[in-house]
Amino acid sequence: MIIRLLTAAGAFLFLAAGLPAAGDPGDDAATVTGTVTFKGDAPKRKKIKMEADPQCLALHDKPQLSEEAVVDKEGRVQWCFVYVKGGLEGKTFETPKEPVVLQQKGCRYDPHVLGIMVGQDLTIHNGDPLMHNVHAIAKRNGEFNFGQPKQGMETSRKFDNPEVMVKFKCDVHPWMSAWLGVLTHPYYAVTGADGKYEIKGLPPGKYTLEVWHETFGTKSEEFEVKAGETKTADFVYEKK
Q: Is the whole-model pTM more than 0.90?
């Protein structure tokens, strides 16, 4: 199963727990951790114009800001998808039975970026007392689009192929967006408000690690971890 934890720093941490795999590392498992930062003047977050739907506007007591580029004063970048891109070829992992959950809350998708394994259930929940539609723009998994007109509605979908990334949007509320990374393994994480990520449970070996951000693009790094080792891999985006 995949255990999804929200750390005190606000980072989403995905732990591989009880996943039988070819060459299961067991006590030899390694960890890769790091911080994603932006060098220079980062783009300013824009105010979301919810006035187009008074029902959405009424759900908030303060202005809502976009999540396309969330960078704090120290340059730390939130909502980066960090994952092992290469080095796990030939290994297989059990599909988690617990679903990944994508919420529609306050006319926003929550979380903005998330990950899932091929074949794992994605549960999409409407927590708002109004109509949403869920439009997934997937290239390798096929596009789907359905409505959720009532609060409390849940719909499940699965993905058959790895794909980084799948965009979700709501055609009713054009400011709503989310991104989903689909992988064949559980070694991924999403940076929190402090720009940090942590991926645990890696078998010893050589890997390619990639970070994806919807505005700043992708960066990758090759590294090697030994049994029980913790490796640090930081990424820096720069203003072009």
A: no
CATH code, domain with 141 = 2.60.40.420
Owning domain of residue 47: 2-238
Strand-pairing partners, residue 81, are 190, 212
pLDDT tens readout for residues 9-63? 444 454 443 343 444 556 689 999 999 999 999 899 999 999 989 999 999 999 9
- What average pLDDT score do residues 139-147 get? 93
Q: Which uninterrupted H or E stretch holds 158?
A: none
SS3 50: helix
Q: Which residue(s) pair with 65 in the sheet?
A: 47
Write down the residue that tokens 């990950």 correspond to.
115
Written as one letter, the residue type at 101 is V
Alpha-helical (H) ranges within 23-114 are 54-57
Tokens of 60: 């908030």
Structurally, the chain folds into a number of domains equal to 1
